[in-house]
Amino acid sequence: MNELRSLYRRTFTLALLIMSSALLAAPVSTQDDLGNTVTLPAPATRIVTLSPSVVEVTYAAGAGEKIVATVEYSDYPVPAQKIPRVGGHSKINLEAVVAARPDLVIAWESGNSPGAIEKIRQLGIPVYMSQPHKMTDIPGEIERIGILTGTEVLAKKSAADFRKRYQALAAKYRNRSPVRVFYQVWQNPLITIGGQQIMSDAITLCRGENIFADLKPLAPRVSFEAVIAANPEAIITSGMADQNPELLDAWKKWPNLTATRRNNFFFIQSDLMNRSGPRILDGTERLCDALQTARDHRPDAKR
Q1: Which ranges of the chain does DSSP label H, i.e. alpha helix?
Q2: CATH 3.10.450.50 is right for the domain spanning 27-159
């Protein structure tokens, strides 16, 4: 009888604890990058992230340990390499997403399938859409994910650190002379970046001028003739490896190009530029250094 009473007391105490936790867990709400309001009954504890950049932002917000599934190539920071996969960013395994039992999915607007995202919503799973177009959008996103995951203190610190580094870079290069830049994403077909692409914003911060900034697509195809006509002073590319100079070899056939004549070919590791997360500042620092080298290569440069 005493054992039965003890079991009842423990069960009653546990029920009270669960009820108290439910009462203390207040709803959280914020807007995503598309202006949608995302409301959760309590801070998320099981998150599925659908792009490598979102993984990095979520870790920066202090919520990396809450990620229960993600997509291929999510390799930074190192602990992310052990997170289970639910396919690639463009081909998501919906059954695997559901099996992960998420209370929040953080998706990538320009990289994930709209149909897959809609199906996730139809299943009643809250979705936060990520799509920063400017570097200054990133710290705000870190803070908003911190709100949804209950890690606001850590998120605010990460966001403040990002803003401080960004402002220091902007101040350093604000008065430098402009450099006309062609950013080559891929060679065949020849793909570059439009003005709405976050990498174009990084070029602007370094006082560069993206020669295709007037194009609306994020990753437009262009012709060699169009690049030659624009005559960039510097050509920059990125790749999966630490170095990928063969992507730039084709331009050596055009000796009249200013970039070719002055040997202004530069490579930046793709993960540091292509992912709209905190490490884009590392890539931007290298980009700014490259454009300063291009300035130093000018015939009238002060030695």
Answers
A1: 2-24, 52-60, 94-99, 114-122, 137-149, 152-173, 198-205, 224-230, 258-261, 270-274, 280-296
A2: no
